Amino acid sequence: MNIQQKFETSDRFAFGFEPEFYGKYYTEMNRVNSGNNKIKGLSYKYDGSAGVSAEMNFPPLLPCDRANDFIKRSLEQVKQFSENKVTWRCGLHMHLSTLPIKQNLTNDQFTALAIEMVDADPYWYEDAGKTSQLFDVSSQIPLEIYQDVGYRMSKHRDFFHSTISKSRRDDGGTVPNGTQPNGYFCRMPITDLERIKNCSPNINSLRQVLCSNGHSYKYSAINVNLYNTKKTVEFRSHQGSLELPKMNTWYKFISNMVNHSLQNRFKADRMEEQITSPSYIGRSDTTIKSRLWNFCRVPGGRSTRDIMSHCDISCPQSVRRTISEIRSNENYEPFIVTHNQQEYGTRYGSSDEYGNNGYEILINANRSIVGNDLKIITDNLNRGKSNLTESLDGQSLADLQERIRQLV
Q1: Average pLDDT in the 131-158 region?
Q2: Whole-Å CA distances, 373 to 142, 187, 268, 278, 370
Q3: Closest to 389 measured CA to CA, from 263, 262, 266, 255
Q4: I need a labelling partner for 296 at 20 to 30 A (CA). Which of 5, 157, 290, 348 fits?
Q5: Mean of per-residue pLDDT scores for the chain
């Protein structure tokens, strides 16, 4: 499987929110979150921004009831104190993992395991053995995808701004007290679309085009600083919030934006490789399938009648059924060739119970495989559209439109 196949839907992007608030200091909230009140996997940390007292630190989660319950309980812990408020100075940062989820884990299983792992070791991500319990570490979404997301955000800048509060819009205005520009902590990509498209897909080049003020790259709307270390990309544009519905809508919007670029605006290279067939298949060389396989693994193959005699198969239909069962395994299918009856000396129209054809198992075969390298689709008609809601499901789109209506 290549990286596109490993992200089948946008709800398989692991996410971690970092809601900021003003009120009780982070050390006080960590004392609250202890003993019988302890919420596993949750911690509070220092932020350092003026007007922010604490930042909540969530474990990686996937959309499911367990994740919703975790977020609800965490937000309720903050909101039980009246002094804890969200002001225009606060943000809601969201990290999306660039690694695919282990295929054998459901969203609920992943979330449960991640919560336990983070609770036991806050620095779990530095341990490759722990990371590999949650993620398929053999592949990672390439930087080109985030380059394309930045291109699309810049191209549709006004629409993206409509999804966030005025103080988070990088539009040349100033925040309520007039002391700093709007969007200071979440700079949008530069407006030169050609420069974004043509920049080298590496961390240093990419963060220069993703941050319009050219410095403080952490303060980008799309922050790629942790791509190589924590294997996440941080999206920083959402205004502060302690409301689960807003968080869920934002996750759906951003994860769909990334997945649309991944699935619909890029294609995987295909390549040919030569493969060699095994001398037998399955667990043993004595089974009927293995005997048939080995018997037919000669140039020209064997007739169905010869296969029946050699393998003690009673009728041509049973031979065809056995061949079909072998074909169903994608590892064996490329080697199987069907020969018609004329190739075995039987004239057309004189077949005996349709048993005069034959089968060959190739010793070597060529197979077309999907590579790991992705290239942007250059044909405009085949490349997915650039608008930011393309591929978004109807309910999430309606939620986003309601959000936009409230922000006007």
Answers
A1: 97
A2: 8, 29, 6, 29, 9
A3: 255
A4: 348
A5: 92
CB distance 200 to 189 below 8 Å: no
For residue 172, the model assigns a pLDDT of 87
Tokens encoding 324:
């079909």
- Hey, how many other C-beta atoms are within 10 angstroms of the C-beta on 216? 11
Q: If we measure between CA atoms, which residue out of 160, 21, 140, 161 comes closest to residue 78?
A: 21
Indicate the residue type of 209: V
What's the pLDDT at 3? 93
CA-CA-CA-CA torsion for 10, 14, 19, 24, nearest 10 degrees? 160
Q: Which two tokens stand for residue 75?
A: 């937000």
Do residues 320 and 300 make contact, with C-beta atoms less than 8 angstroms apart? no
User: Could you tell me if 140 and 3 are in contact, meaning their C-beta atoms sit under 8 angstroms apart?
Assistant: yes
- What tokens appear for 366 in the block? 């060529």
In single-letter form, the type of residue at position 102 comes to K
How far is residue 222 from each of residues 46, 150, 154, 203, measured CA to CA in Å? 21, 7, 11, 12
Q: Measured over all CA atoms, what is the biggest interatomic distance in the chain, rounded to whole angstroms?
A: 93
β partners of residue 187 = 220
User: What are the residue ranges spanned by the domains of the chain?
Assistant: 3-269+373-407, 278-362
Amino acid making up residue 263? Q
Q: Rounded to 5 degrees, what are φ and ψ at 67?
A: -65, -45
Q: Would you say 319 and 304 are in contact if contact means Cβ atoms under 8 Å apart?
A: yes
Tell whether the model's pLDDT for residue 158 goes beyond 80.
yes
CA gap 301, 307 in Å, rounded:
10
Task: Name the DSSP class of 370.
Answer: E
pLDDT band at residue 175 using 50, 70 and 90 as cut-offs: confident
Q: Does position 70 have pLDDT exceeding 70, yes or no?
A: yes
Nearest to 125 by CA among 173, 72, 60, 40: 60
Residue 105 confidence (pLDDT) above 70? yes
How far apart CA 299 and CA 362 sit, in angstroms, is 7
Burial environment of residue 158 by CB neighbours within 10 A (0 to 12, 13 to 18, 19 or more) = exposed
Residue matched to tokens 């997301």: 149
**Identity (one letter) of the amino acid at 126?**
E
CB atoms under 10 Å from CB of 256, counted, come to 23
pLDDT exceeds cutoff 60 at 114: yes
Question: Is the separation of the CB atoms in 60 and 14 below 8 Å?
Answer: yes
Supply the pLDDT for residue 377: 94
